Amino acid sequence: EPEHLQRHVLPVTDATVGTSAVLRLDDGARAAFDVFRGVTLRPEQVSVKVIDARGPVDEDVPAPDQLERKGFPVEASHSPPTERTTVRATVENYDAAVLLGQYVEPMPRFEFTDGVAGSLQLTLGADFDLFLLVPRDLEDVDIMARAALPIPDGFEAAAPPALGATALTGDGPRNPVPVRAGEVSPMQLVRAIDGRPPDGQRCD
């Protein structure tokens, strides 16, 4: 129905190219296009507290500055050395944590707590290598992050799966993605749509 259509207006400015009057897209137009691309978050929307716990390192550009160049607003600090690189966030910040994890090499450990959403915390451990130029595949990060979500009472916790590994049962391969506790993320990909075929048509 026409009344159910959702309209999007692109922000533009008047401009002149040669002798022609044209409209140029504003920077804000990217957010409108993101709706159709399926992009729900961008780095500039995710504030990160970076805690450098690697110990002495020799690098031309400090790691927090490298992450800032990816678009993330960064607040940097230092702490005593630790081994593992870890992303800490609240459950409400799940999607932001997954987005951050797409840029960290190697895959970080995830820790989630219940509470009010706030800035993400990224602790760089001795195992930290670099921030990826091209973000890691969303599904790979989602698998690891989902396994770290708090488990409600009455549910059994599952161990984080190994990347690229498929667990086997007596009946054959099992889906390596653990059942996720909590609400379904807006970042979750839709793989199938249930529905009925048009009248007079059949689905094989």
What's the layout of helices and strands?
Layout: E1 12-17, E2 20-25, H1 29-37, E3 48-52, H2 63-69, E4 74-78, E5 86-90, H3 94-101, E6 104-105, E7 109-113, E8 120-124, E9 130-131, H4 138-147, E10 168-169, E11 172-173
Parallel strand pairs: 3-4, 3-8, 5-7
Antiparallel strand pairs: 1-2, 5-8, 6-9, 10-11
Helix pairs in contact: 3-4
Terminal CA distance reads 29 Å
Largest sheet: 5 strands, mixed
Strand order of the largest sheet: 4-3-8-5-7
Mean pLDDT: 77
Q: What is the alpha-carbon Rg in Å?
A: 22 Å
How much β-strand is present in the residues? 15-25%
Secondary-structure class:
alpha/beta
Quaternary status: single chain
Overall 3D shape: extended
Low-confidence runs of at least 5 consecutive residues: 166-184, 186-191
What level of helicity do the residues show? 10-25%
Number of strands: 11
Given the structure, what is the number of helices? Answer: 4
Task: Please give a quick description of this structure.
The protein has helices spanning 29-37, 63-69, 94-101, 138-147; strands spanning 12-17, 20-25, 48-52, 74-78, 86-90, 104-105, 109-113, 120-124, 130-131, 168-169, 172-173. The chain has 204 residues and is of the alpha/beta class. The protein has a domain at 43-162.
